[in-house]
Amino acid sequence: EPKRKTAFGSVGRRIPYRILHVIDQDGKSLGNMHRAEALKLMDQHDLKLVLLQENVEPPVYRLMTGQQIHEEQLRRAEKQKASPKPGVVQKELSFSSAIARNDLETKTKQIAQWIEKKYHVKVTIRQAK
């Protein structure tokens, strides 16, 4: 079964690691601590623990408010939208600077159709002799 990437959010009380590196809600490092201490801190300050980095030793968790978690989720969603998706079609069109008016109109209509279909369009204009 493939390992699914979990969504960014509170991990609740299910923490599989015994020793954690904890960062407070202001971004200051609280150092390494046992899972029980981190949970106690979480309950005392009415915050949620969020996994930031899993592939380091010890894993990095951050104490966050619900508002901070929401803002981070929005930031990550925007970043994912901005990143290029695999399989994006790129269309390329080239023409001379001495192109006739009708040909230019036809090609601009074609470019508009490609943009509507969310294709990436590359236009090259060559200088006429």
Automatic annotation (TrEMBL):
What SUPFAM superfamilies does the annotation carry? Translation initiation factor IF3, C-terminal domain, Translation initiation factor IF3, N-terminal domain
GO BP annotations of the record are:
mitochondrial translational initiation; ribosome disassembly
Q: Which residues belong to any copy of the Translation initiation factor 3 N-terminal domain?
A: 11-78
Q: Name one GO cellular component term.
A: mitochondrion
Q: Does the keyword Cell membrane apply?
A: no
GO molecular function annotation: ribosome binding; translation initiation factor activity
| Superkingdom field | Eukaryota
Q: Which UniProt keywords apply?
A: Initiation factor, Protein biosynthesis
The similarity annotation says:
Belongs to the IF-3 family.
This chain belongs to which protein, by name?
A: IF3M factor
The organism of origin for this protein: Campylorhamphus procurvoides
